[in-house]
Design goal:
Order of helices and strands of chain A: HHHHHHHHHHHHHH
Distance between the termini of chain A: 35 Å
Largest sheet of chain A: none
CATH superfamily of the largest domain in chain B: Periplasmic binding protein-like II
Helix content of chain B: 40-55%
Oligomer: heterodimer
Largest interface: A-B, 27 and 27 residues
CATH superfamily of chain A: MetI-like
Family (chain B): Belongs to the bacterial solute-binding protein 1 family.
Number of domains of chain B: 2
Number of helices of chain A: 14
CATH architecture of chain A: Orthogonal Bundle
CATH topology of chain A: MetI-like fold
Main location (chain B): periplasm
Radius of gyration of chain A: 23 Å
Subcellular location (chain B): Periplasm
Radius of gyration of chain B: 23 Å
Order of helices and strands of chain B: HHHEHEHEHEEHHEHHEHEHEHHEHEH
Helix content of chain A: over 70%
Structural class of chain B: alpha/beta
Number of strands of chain A: 0
CATH topology of the largest domain in chain B: D-Maltodextrin-Binding Protein, domain 2
Number of domains of chain A: 1
Protein name (chain B): Polyamine ABC transporter, periplasmic polyamine-binding protein
Number of helices of chain B: 16
GO molecular function (chain B): thiamine binding; thiamine pyrophosphate binding
CATH class of the largest domain in chain B: Alpha Beta
Largest sheet of chain B: 11 strands, mixed
Chain lengths: ~280, ~375
């Protein structure tokens, strides 16, 4: 008994530096932010009351949710197709997917946002193409709005969806797919009844990772949204650096953090349920 | 040799070093010659004058321009290395620096209202007008906590493909989408935009301040369907104009000048009814390099020759009236601070902004994100 205890103690001692470091570098500043949210400009819960009741803030939170959800659904759907190609397609196609997924990851988020501005602009490649084939007669407004923000966010997030999805696809026993085909299921049926259920943990993980990432988006909406689609992260910046309202900025950050914490808890809970089902 | 004499020399050297009168290099060399360098180190002389001086501006091309115009030569003559940091000294960023207890910024190139309100809040220190010369800027451009570093303007720029050479000249024109059809762009951080709306609504320039914010916002609502984007950075405003995404813009004169060049005259602009404002030098309290080097840097940047250099590099107009005579004749029309151009423009009121900026910006941003 004693020996076990001392081993446990030694183990705790070995991993202690990390939690301590986290508490110091992360916990302390976080406590400071929580402190601001209830003390600035005057002590009390006024800032939280404002977060809940202010119609402009509610609009902004709803916009953030809407943009993040639509971007997440699209990014995960595209990520799913790409992962499928990456895992199951022939070698050359796998290379194509790797290039399509990895190369954008190494390009700065600013460059990508400005790239989309150019591609989607009035005289950009997409409008020019659509006009030359006669689908549209004048340029369509595709930038400086929510559409452009979603395009930019999806482009950024697809690789983050691909990793959990492809890793869960790699773990699948391919013989189950062959067996389904052998038992007479068509391609679609095999996909829905055999592949998708087995990749559910990956799908869930991808969804949550992408969604949580999207909540923190800052530069992409600021550039592609033309200053009119403020999301929560930019709003926090505004409160901190432009309008000097640190209390409200801190309260919004705490709300955002709590929400993300909830999502993470959901992810853990869901993955455990999944194990039980298996 | 008298035992007391070297220590006296050291004392003199240390005093001069502390006051920033000799460079760190010279101090170390002199101490080395006196063979007392280790002792000097032990004595703990604060090498304020040898410490890096951090000058913070708004980034982009201005980083290189400041380095070429001000930092390099100042470092050479003073021995104080200067680092130009382009992260943007917004009001909140400076407050955050101060709140940390150990600011890492020395001199900031701040908006006038930022310098004024942070000075009142005890976050910026009063400028030392025994080092900096008050009369090297036009009257009204030097305050306790800030002094003009240069001038710039918010001007109207338009696409001549749409309107020929007869672009909008008044803010009523800017709001007139019948006479001047096409998308617009306004400044996301509000400065000058409330004034533009009020002038378009018929208020006389002399009656602008104090600004009637609700009235300005109502007038802005009117134009909202025609505003494609609110630009947040100079590069963004330039891109909106050059791509033809917008036909009219309220943008900085510095970017307007570049646009005119880059588009071979397609984008035109003028100083009629533009809003001119200085930018201010301010110094953080308890700044790491010490007060003296910061004040000396500001004084150095008052030199007309360096200001003309900056004007040539960025289009920012010299704050020192003596620099005007050094501007080459072919560039004078561009100078927003020249008497002819000043006469066409309206000056933004830094005092009003110092009192109302945060509250008004919050309302403005909420209005445009609706």
């Amino acid at each position: 008994m004693n020996a076990v205890n001392s081993t446990a103690f030694k183990r705790a001692l070995l991993i202690a530096p990390l939690p301590l470091l986290l508490a110091l570098l992360y916990g302390l500043p976080l406590a400071g932010v929580i402190g601001w949210s209830v003390t600035l400009p005057t002590p009390g819960l006024e800032q939280y009351r404002q977060v809940v009741t202010d119609p402009s803030i509610r609009d902004m939170l709803l916009r953030t949710l809407r943009l993040c959800l639509s971007s997440t659904v699209l990014a995960v759907a595209i990520g799913y197709l790409l992962s499928y190609c990456w895992v199951f397609a022939s070698r050359p196609w796998q290379r194509v997917v790797e290039i399509a997924v990895f190369v954008p990851m190494w390009i700065s988020v600013l460059v990508r946002a400005f790239g989309w501005l150019i591609a989607l602009g009035n005289e950009g490649i997409l409008n020019t193409l659509l006009m030359s084939v006669g689908l549209i007669h004048g340029p369509v407004q595709m930038t400086r709005n929510e559409f452009a923000v979603v395009v930019g966010m999806v482009h950024f997030m697809v690789p983050y969806a691909v990793f959990p999805l492809s890793s869960s696809m790699r773990q699948i026993d391919r013989r189950t797919l062959l067996a389904a085909r052998g038992l007479g299921a068509g391609g679609l049926r095999t996909f829905w009844a055999v592949l998708v259920p087995q990749t559910l943990p990956g799908l869930l993980g991808a969804f949550l990772i992408v969604f949580v990432f999207c909540l923190g988006f800052f530069i992409t909406p600021a550039i592609l949204g033309g200053g009119q689609t403020t999301m929560i992260a930019e709003y926090v910046y505004l409160q901190m650096f432009q309008t000097n309202n640190w209390g409200l900025g801190a309260a919004l950050s705490v709300v955002l953090l709590a929400f993300i914490g909830l999502m993470a808890a959901l992810l853990m809970w869901a993955s455990r349920v999944n194990k039980l089902v298996r | 040799m008298d035992k007391h004499h070297p220590s006296d020399c050291i004392e003199i050297l240390m005093d001069r070093a502390r006051e920033g009168k000799i460079s760190r290099r010279r101090f170390v060399k002199a101490m080395g010659m006196l063979a007392v360098l280790p002792a000097a180190m032990r004595a703990g002389v604060g090498f304020a004058q040898g410490k890096q001086l951090v000058v913070v501006n708004w980034g982009g091309d201005a980083i290189d321009a400041y380095r070429k115009s001000w930092a390099d030569e100042f470092s050479r003559s003073s021995g104080i290395p200067v680092k130009i940091d382009g992260s943007g000294p917004t009001d909140g960023a400076i407050r955050a620096q101060a709140a940390s207890g150990r600011p890492s910024w020395d001199v900031v190139d701040a908006e006038p209202y930022t310098a004024l309100s942070l000075g009142r809040a005890g976050i910026c220190q009063p400028l030392d007008y025994t080092v900096i010369e008050r009369n090297k800027v036009a009257p009204g451009f030097a305050h306790d906590y800030g002094i003009a570093s240069y001038l710039f303007s918010y001007v109207m720029a338009w696409d001549s493909r749409k309107y020929g050479a007869k672009g909008p000249r008044t803010w009523a024109d800017f709001w007139n989408v019948q006479a001047f059809p096409g998308k617009r762009t306004l400044f996301k951080w509000m400065n000058g935009m409330l004034e533009a709306a009020l002038l378009a609504d018929g208020i006389a320039p002399s009656a602008l301040y104090p600004l009637d914010v609700p009235r300005a916002l109502r007038k802005l609502d009117e134009l909202k369907p025609h505003i494609l984007a609110y630009w947040g950075s100079g590069a963004e405003s330039q891109q909106l104009m050059v791509n033809g995404d917008v036909s009219v813009g309220a943008i900085w004169n510095t970017r307007a000048g570049l646009l005119e060049q880059d588009s071979d005259g397609r984008i035109q602009w003028g100083y009629d009814n533009a809003f001119v404002t200085p930018s201010y030098w301010a110094v953080l309290k308890n700044n790491p390099a010490g007060a003296q080097p910061a004040m000396r840097f500001i004084a150095y940047a008052q030199d007309p020759k360096t200001q003309v250099e900056l004007f040539k590099l960025t289009g920012n107009s010299p704050a020192n009236p003596a620099a005007r005579a050094l501007i080459p004749a072919d560039l004078r029309a561009r100078d927003c601070g020249s008497p002819e151009n000043l006469a066409k423009q309206i000056r933004l009121n830094g005092d009003w902004y110092a009192d109302h900026y945060a509250a008004a910006l919050e309302q403005y941003l909420r209005r445009l994100a609706k």
